[in-house]
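Hi R.,

As promised, here are both runs. First protein below:
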Amino acid sequence: MNKNLIVILVLSAVVYSANTWKTSVYVLDEARNAGCAMEMYQRNDWVVPTFNGELRTDKPPLHYYLMQLSYRVFGINAFSARLYATVMGLLTVLVVYFFGRKLAGEQTSFFSALILISSLQLAVQFHLAVPDPCLIFFLTLGYLSFIYAYLLQKSRFYYLFYVAISLATLSKGPVAILFTGLTVLIFLVAQQNFKVKTLLQIKVPQGILIFLVLVLPWYILVGIATEGEWIEQFFFKHNINRFTSTMEGHGGFPLASFVIVIGALVPFSFFFPQAIRNIWHEQKTNPFIQFCLIATGVVVIFFAFSRTILPNYPEPALPFFALLLGFYLSTIYARPEIIKKQRLHVNAIVYVIVSMAIPFAVWIGLGYEEPLRDLRYSAGYFSILSLGAFLGLYFMIRKEIAYVVYAYTTSSVLLLLIFFYGIYPRIDQQNPVLQSLPLMVHPEKPVLYYRDFNPAFVFALRHPINAIGTAREAEAYSGSAAGFYLITQKRFLSELESLDARVIFEGKDLFESRTTLILEK
């Protein structure tokens, strides 16, 4: 095992597993996904996903399966819910390293792996019990298996390509097929090799069979079990409607996906202006670089037209963008004399300025959240990025590009560890779910909710929460029961005045506009 492999293996394991067991499952999507897997596990159900007892049609089941397996071994807890995400992150970095080494050389693969590990956005993603870690890994594995098979005539890797894309489809749905089809089609056209003979060589008929065998059975079973409701809701509401209209307030602007991808790989994306010129010329004669450019572009351009966008949507592009940046930096590593010619010291200076501004931005951001204002001192930890930026500038002036990469990576990894072990746990302690649970001290009292509630309560309580749909129903329930706890939101309190219930907790949901209330009757 070479030293580069040891470095990325240790760094990725340390970063992606950092404190996954300590912080609560609170983030909205994570709570719903972990709660859904919990309910499927409690029912021993591998077909119908539900959250809080109601059909959940947002995502296919692969990440639910992986969480169920963890629950069976380690019990229902935050560590179990997130274990597969940690593994997906580690495997993504290793796949980029191994395939990148074969197709672009040791230096490119090593730099690319370090770029991925340095990404705060990816590190956060690989800490969450959501489907995106699976999608990112299986698309990365599939794409790199394809280009490896295509360029090196290793035809058995086409089978791995089709298996990986099938599993990506079971992770997040038809978007995996769309991205793959567009990427392969555009690449073959660019190679002037889009022919029937080529489609047979890349084993398209066998691939369709593999896809149908792996993907179709669950879709048929869930369609039958839900009388078609899951199929209809998933494909129309959560795919077509998300692309054509803004959902859940997650709108964006035309260049949002581009900004997200650039921001996700800071600080290395500061070299993008020079890198894109180099990459554009290189892709004309280097099919691997061309493929990575197409894979990145397909995702970014697709979401540029989407009316609904979140920071995680363009993330499947990041491994390939990292490979492009890694290739560029390895080119500079081999020819340090062009550093001055390409004025890379200017980019390093810009990063120094930005890194010095980041702590102030974090301080201001925390100030907008009333429960977190006392934690604004945490912004000072982000000054670690400035230390890395100044070191990077020093080594850039000395034309030592490898040490620039090491300086940036070291400062980013240190910040990530401080964030996951220090900053985020303190933030997490301020969430209203954690703060209110100790106040519900009577286990014999059922927990109910009125109108709406924070979904993290389901996973925290380890069971679904029954609803009271109207104030009149709440009054009837209060007359027939010895008592209960009622979770609701502050905006609905006036509707519950006739209950004569006592408010035992009030707390603003972090990074949301709503305020959680707990009433006791």
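And here is the second one, sequence first, then its structure tokens:
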Amino acid sequence: MTFPLQLVRRWSRVPIPEAETVLETAGFPPWLAALLARRGVADAAAADAFLKPNSEHLHSPADLQGVEEAVERIAAARQRDERIAIVGDYDVDGISAAALLSAVLRAVGLEVEVILPNRLDEGYGFQVLHVDRARDAGCSLILTADCGTTAAEAVEEARNKGLDVIITDHHLPAAEPLRGAIEINPKRQSTSYPFPDLAGAGVALKLAVAVAEHFGRSIEVGTLLRVACLGTICDLVPLIGENRTIASLGLDELARTRSVGLQELMRKADVRAPVTASDVGYRLGPRLNAAGRMSRPDEALELLMTRDRVRAAALAQQLDDWNRSRQEAETRVVEAALDAFAARDPLPPVLVAWSDSWHPGVVGIAAGRIARKVHRPTVLFSVDGDWATGSGRSIAEIHLHEFLSGWKEEYERFGGHAQAIGMKVAVQDLGRLRKAWEQGAAANWDRDSLTKTLTYELEMPASELDNELVAKLRTLEPFGMGNPQPVLRVGPLRSSGKPRFFGKGHLGLAAQGEDGSPIDLLGWGWQDRAKELEDSFEVLGCLEQDRYTQRPVLRLVDVRAWELSSGSSAHEGPVPRRMTEDG
């Protein structure tokens, strides 16, 4: 649907840091030096590590506070024939973290019970009820995966009932460390670990490797990386530093995986080698997530663990079916919420809505779609009786967890990080909280941060958009937070045919530059904007290679009429260097 409010959008070229000069001096072509410098690369050694990730760039698990103590406790559990409960989460990060830990613990001879929460009945996080389930299963040690860093009540309950607890998590911790638990969290201020932005699967990877090494078990790190990369990419942590290494090496392993579960899932999702971060984020991840959103996450975990081809095929089909149901439910929530927000004029700085007809498993992903579309932090709630379960998604300029923490005493449950939060509140408090959040945001947020700024890194004519350029840009993959796919500004362009509509509102268009150079344009969900691609126009887009035609295609980000920005006066500062300047 078309949102009726006309949101202001501005285009801005990303500044080039001073490190570009250092990298050029070291021999990197100007276009690459600029792109690397913008991604925090300051010298030639860092550039080499960025462009050629390898296992030597993975930090030692021993550097992560709590790992050695956790290994000692796990070793004691094996010596005493104890049973360990792994309490994970229902999303891809939590599922992949639980899969990593359970696989390695079983490989070294431990008995494991995996407990994944039901999003619909239990909500997020390590809770008292999981302590009871662990004890009923005969476990004396609980190991969390991607959760638990703020679960003081559950930890205390476990200790009271004679169960020890090891926390592995990456979410923002409480001010004080958990009492009575071994805690592994790279975001703890007390840790000296060199990379604080690991995903939950990354933290689990560290402990898994340490456990295997302690017991002298030879485990191919690649088999762990192919699972760790799923959580790392799907949880939207920055794909720089160690996360980039995990993602890059893990994607290589996915392309040649021997896991029948992943093979069947990739077949169902039409993912083929080489596997990209986009494949994981938009094809594999949503199917794995769909289990926890629409039913229970156990089938997703089973798919990652099974060695039965027939069972793997059945599970991949089930996940695909759930994903289709998720898409339909998500669309209903997005459309209803946008209708509600369209009635607000002016649009408030933070968008909050709720309904008892919204599926609780999709409010988070729906909030993300709205936040991207309307450029406002968005929190949506699914109401069930007296309680509302909500998920929020933010924009880059706003730290949503920090903002909403100002009212945390009024929430039944609350957790998350800068860009995503989850919470449970009383329905009777929703109206009051929405008003308080809107007033707090209006008083404290810079209004400019709510103006959608579309940034680009390179500017060039259509004649330079070829497969050689595609190959050059691919050296920066995998793309994600902290390492976005470079956006190009291209124009002027004219259509050289009629738009082709396909799928659910998607658009394809043949266009050409001033000199007649052809370029294919692709717009996901762009059918409503087809009229903007007439006459003379310029676009922002990401250059890719069509998987079927093998021709370069420009995936559209935005468009505007050329006459409104033609001429040198339209550019904000000097025109960016083009990629042909490397000689």
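A quick note on the second one: The first strand starts at residue 9 and ends at 13. Let me know what you think.

Best,
J.
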